[in-house]
């Protein structure tokens, strides 16, 4: 961990090209407990609209300086889908949040189920 710095990661593909594959940012459930943040309402997955909006804001701010093809927000969402599967369109029914760029504009589709 670096304090007041940047942590960057890349992977070199067999072709020799450097790419960023997937970046995970999460807040442990224990930390949510300590903070007194309600995050479970009986649905199958933990959810907090407050946390979702906060994470979406972090993603939107990040997109300004480091564009990405897809962001997903929710409980245990790492690797759950990819940008090519969505083909540039937000699902109508969403059990997780999506940050999906269309050109230079980032669209946020909050979880709605």
Question: In short, what is this structure?
Answer:
With 113 residues, the protein is α+β, with helices and mostly antiparallel strands. 25% of the residues lie in helices and 16% in strands.
SSE arrangement:
Elements: E1 11-12, E2 18-19, H1 29-35, H2 49-65, E3 71-73, H3 83-86, E4 97-102, E5 105-109
Antiparallel strand pairs: 1-2, 3-4, 4-5
Describe what this molecule looks like in 3D.
With 113 residues, this protein is α+β, with helices and mostly antiparallel strands. Helices cover 25% and strands 16% of the residues. It has three helices and five strands. It has helices at 29-35, 49-65, 83-86, and strands at residues 11-12, 18-19, 71-73, 97-102, 105-109. The protein has a three-stranded antiparallel beta sheet, with helices on one face. A two-stranded antiparallel sheet has the order 1-2. The radius of gyration is 15 Å and the shape is globular. It starts with 10 loop residues before the first strand and ends with a strand. The relative contact order is 0.14.
Question: Key terms for this structure?
Answer:
113 residues; alpha+beta; 3 helices; 5 strands; 25% helix
Cα shape: globular
Helix-strand pattern, N to C? EEHHEHEE
Low-confidence stretches: none
Main pleated sheet: 3 strands, antiparallel
Q: By helix and strand content, what is the structural category?
A: alpha+beta
Strand order of the largest sheet: 3-4-5
Q: Please estimate the helix content.
A: 10-25%
Intertermini distance:
36 Å
Mean pLDDT: 85
Number of strands: 5
**Structure annotation, total helices:** 3
Report the β-strand fraction as a percent range. Answer: 15-25%
Query: How many whole angstroms does the radius of gyration measure?
Result: 15 Å
């Amino acid at each position: 961990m670096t304090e007041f710095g940047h942590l960057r990661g890349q992977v070199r593909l067999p072709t020799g090209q450097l790419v960023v594959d997937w970046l995970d940012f999460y807040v442990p459930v224990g930390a949510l407990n300590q903070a007194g943040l309600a995050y479970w309402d009986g649905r199958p997955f933990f959810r907090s609209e407050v946390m979702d909006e906060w994470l979406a804001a972090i993603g939107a701010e990040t997109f300004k300086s480091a564009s990405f093809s897809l962001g997903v927000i929710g409980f245990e969402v790492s690797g759950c889908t990819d940008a090519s599967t969505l083909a540039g369109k937000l699902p109508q029914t969403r059990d997780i949040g999506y940050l999906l760029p269309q050109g230079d504009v980032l669209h946020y589709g909050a979880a709605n189920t």
